[in-house]
Amino acid sequence: MKFNELLNKYLEEFNCSSKTLSELANISPAVISRYRSGKRTPAIDSKQLKSIINAIKQISENKYKEEDIEKEFKNVFQKAEFNYESFSKNLNELINTLKINIKDMSKYTLCDASSISRMRYGKIKPSEPVEFANKIASYVTNKCTNEIDRKKIEKLTNNDEENLYKKVFKYLINKEENKNNDMIKTFLNNLDKFNLNDYIKAIKFDELKVPSVPFYITKTKNYFGLEEMKKAELDFLKGTVLSKNNEDVFMCSDMPIEDLAKDIDFSKKWMFGIACLLKKGIHLNIIHNLDRPFNEMMLGLESWIPLYMTGQINPFYFKDINTNIYHNLTYVSGTLALAGECIENYHKDGKYFLTSNKKEVDYYKTKANNLLKKANNLMNIYKEENSKSYNLFLDDCLNKDGNIKRILSSLPLFTMSDDLLNEILKNNKVSKKDINKILNYKNEEFNKYNTLLKNNTINDIIYILSKEEFTKNISSLSLSNTFYDKKIKYSYETYLKHLKETKKFASKNNNYILNISNYLTFNNISITIFDKKEVIISKEENPTIHFVIKYPKLVNAINNFNPLVKE
């Protein structure tokens, strides 16, 4: 049963109208209408769902307890959000890896053998998926007790849980992937809402004055232990900022960060040093350590996003990290080099070495260049000054065979007619020169996408704004690829015209798939996924910028993010 079906069942049982529910739940009639038709669904933990549950309790005149109504709705959500495809794949892999006897499993789980066989190949779905996963996990825990089987389970599940039951249960219900999806959703939402101008004001970056007091260090200096190592990092930043040299800075470290993160004062000073480097105009090449749990990786990347938006940072990563025993750090600027080392779990016994000796600095510059040759681009970052490079990259992507999936914050530009685009641009008092520029870009895009659609699919996910929603959130043309810095706004009439033209285009092109989301995913970013290999996150404003992500783990996580799953 779906959410709207359960809602309608309750309303029909007590002969309650949409208007009455709207008044009791304090939710607009238009939204209630969308809930009842299935076009929209509230989030499982939203105040709207809580209000609806409370309203149903009132109209039932306490026939049903609030907790029972809530349980029934949440059960619907859990089943709707359960990844049956992943469950079948993982169940089949588990049976094959452990060479499980289906008849034996059938007796233990009280589910007939033919049903289990059909479930493992995705032909049927378990009616109570979480409960069935619980039974399978219990069976495996009790039956597969030898060391060989345990090692197979550890390798298969790739889960750090010590408890065998939890390993198998989480593997079957794909709990880790759901957690990753939540992290990706948070990351994308924060990026969508991020405003660089507000950030600059908040940290007073625009008022930041780069210090000019001379800073002297001896030719070489050693730092021992955690406190001295913190001082070494700050001395490196200070010495680099105060030197007259503006060469690129290189940073690469897999040193433990937990001890440093606990020291808030050090973290603030370190970030201030990085801000001073950027304010001075220095470019930074950084190799991030991504060999860590997914949530830590995402939090780390999120903290760097504001700094990426300066366009002065090139982020990289290593594909293979072969040791977890030694930790190393290499920082190099035009005049200084900082090297550090420690042994895993013995960070406090580590050592840093700071030098301004030209011969030693040259050695570490060579080392940095060699490390960069071994590294892979984490992402390429394009601002307006790199617009030619960005458009060459886009042309290259569109000239290759491969399917495209896009999550759009506005309607796709290329589906709009010239007449309608002219009308919107003139309504916004755009200059004739800019009108021609935008028209030419739209037609170039139309030709490129039409060529691509001959052999490949484009899957666009959009949200349709109601008139009420449009007045609160007036939509604008999607022009981030042109780096146009002014908002071109629709009227609701022109918005509906563009929507009609988009649907018409989809009806005439079998390879163009238009999906309607149940909720507005993003206001200020669009996501383009090229053949599951590269992801572009395009920010429309504050600032207009494009992040081209190449790191497979992150590309895969964003590709698995699905805004059509009801919030």
Features:
single chain, 567 residues, alpha+beta, 434 Repressor (Amino-terminal Domain), Endonuclease, Chain A, 4 domains, 8-stranded mixed sheet, 7-stranded mixed sheet, 24 helices, 52% helix, 14% strand
Describe the structure.
The chain is an alpha+beta fold and 567 residues long. It folds into 4 domains: 3-77, lambda repressor-like DNA-binding domains (434 Repressor (Amino-terminal Domain), Orthogonal Bundle); 84-173; 208-377, Endonuclease, Chain A (2-Layer Sandwich); 384-560, no CATH class. The protein has 24 helices and 15 strands. It has helices spanning 3-13, 18-25, 29-37, 47-59, 66-81, 84-98, 102-109, 113-120, 129-143, 147-157, 164-173, 175-193, 196-202, 225-242, 258-261, 264-279, 294-308, 358-374, 387-398, 418-427, 432-452, 467-472, 492-508, 552-560, and strands at residues 220-224, 249-253, 284-288, 313-317, 326-332, 337-343, 346-355, 376-377, 379-382, 404-407, 458-462, 512-516, 525-530, 534-539, 545-549. The two termini are 17 Å apart.
Our count of helices gives 24
End-to-end separation:
17 Å
- Beta-strand percent range: 5-15%
Note poorly predicted spans.
none
> Strand count, sense and closure of the main sheet?
8 strands, mixed
- Taking strands numbered 1, 2, ... along the chain, how are they ordered across the largest sheet? 1-7-6-5-2-3-4-8
Tell me the total number of β-strands: 15
- What gyration radius follows from the Cα positions, in whole Å? 28 Å
Quote the average pLDDT.
85
What class do helices, strands and sheet pairing give?
A: alpha+beta
> Percent helix among the residues?
40-55%
Apparent shape: globular
Q: Count the domains.
A: 4
